[in-house]
Amino acid sequence: MYWPETLSKDIQNKLSGPYHVDDMKTPSGQVHIGALRGVILHDVLHKEFLKEGQKSVYTYIYNDMDPMKKIPSDLVGKGYEADLGKPIFMMKAPEGTKDYARYFADIFTGAFNKMGATPEILFSSEMYKAGKFNDVIKEALDKVENIRKIYSEVAGYEKPENWFPVQVICPKCGKVGTTIVTGWNGKEVEFECRTDLVTWAQGCAYKGSISPFDGNAKLMWKVDWPAHWKVLGVNVEGAGKDHSSAGGSRDMATELCKLFGIQEPADIPYEWFLTKEGSKMSTSSGVGMYAKDLVEVLPPEVARFLVLRTNYNTAILFEPEGETIPDLYDEFDRCATNFYAETPEDADAAKYFDAAIIRDQFKQHNFLPRFRTLSSYIQMPSMDIQKWATDEKGSELTQFEKDILNERIAYAKIWLNTYAPEKYVFMFKTEIPENATKLSDVQKNFLNSVTKLINEKYINSEHTADELQFDIFELTKVVGIPSKEAFKAMYTSLIGKEHGPKAGWLIKDIGYATVNERFEKIWKNSL
Ligand SMILES: [Zn+2]
Q1: CA of 125 to the centre of ligand 1 (A)
Q2: Which of 260, 363, 450, 526 could form a disulfide with 444 if both were Cys (CB 3.0 to 4.6 A apart)?
Q3: Which domains does the chain have, with CATH numbers?
Q4: Average pLDDT for residues 413-422, to the nearest whole number?
């Protein structure tokens, strides 16, 4: 099952087009990788509608009217304490001239643009200031009794008689999280900026009356969400599954849509990105990586593939320190093979690859060098990787295939330097590895035989690493040692691991003299 197709059919059965797909995010700091799931999911669905001949638009909203509730850990002590409670569009960015919300929004947009998602970007503050929310604010204030009833019946919150679903940006201190509206006369709201309304911010105690329109006030989050749908005409918007809990924001939105006289958008309650500990990757938990970092460690198509390959109702397990990244490339390549095949064995795999393509050249048949193999070969300076790739393909690489090869080499280097498990990193140990002293006498004697072989045939000669590899293998037969034991002895002595890249290349790269010195020391210790 190719989930975008199934999901799009489900939605088309429920409501007819044209479609307005939307997603949103509060950029209260660097946006975590988890938020990419919503962006890519909506993007894939939007493109599926278009592919099926439907009309569809896709917008992405930054909720920059939201108050700053908690300073991100990397910005604590940098002068933001006084901003707690202010709308994030009224705060200064850590650098440059943009406002705080736009600064972080632009970084996040840059990340998902690289991953092939290019929704129209909207900022709530601009829509509020342009008066686009005026009608729905008036409606919410006029129908406040119904809204209080919805809060009570759906979420179990009893709101007092003088409660209203809007918050004013205090004209004196600029905070929005500290204000409370206590009256509405059809033109202006009465409000107070309280010192003790919330625990995370302190208001200035100002009281007054003000028009709630043209950006002076915002709707409270649970009302703000369906208000956006009404203002924009959104009819498809999913959210992380926690919004769909009983009595949660989605249930509230369902009732508010009825009140506002709009059809509720189709929902897509999606699962999370998980780390290996199983904890949700999000801004609040502080677990995991930032969205901007994902596109630094993976090529754009592979990053996009990571997010779209898993059905939205299943958690994505992303363990950059584990096997996730090399496994991901293998699955990407498997789907590519199906896409390039005339009659694919796995038709869904072909569709997932198609959905991951950003650069058109990927649509032509391309040779894709295996990431795991490349990661090992690039650690051997004498290895001719271009030649290896040409041999693997069986003909000259096209220009784009050379580009892919160089791109994968660059990302393999990043992976080896950041997340790759120790077993993939083959570095010559400058000290004799501890486990080398525990080799058997047979193994140590074999090392001595290799030293002799190198001295007799290889030092100051033109013989290749390939020949050395062959000779070492022959030597195991002469010495009468199982080849597995023999190679283990060499890897343990040189890189401290039980396996490694082709020994002939490894030895040539480290240098004959250095290898001989190491092998001799280990052999002599056993005497
Ligand atoms: Zn105030």
Answers
A1: 19
A2: 526
A3: 3-125+223-273 (3.40.50.620), 135-146+153-219 (no CATH), 366-424 (no CATH), 434-525 (1.10.10.350)
A4: 88
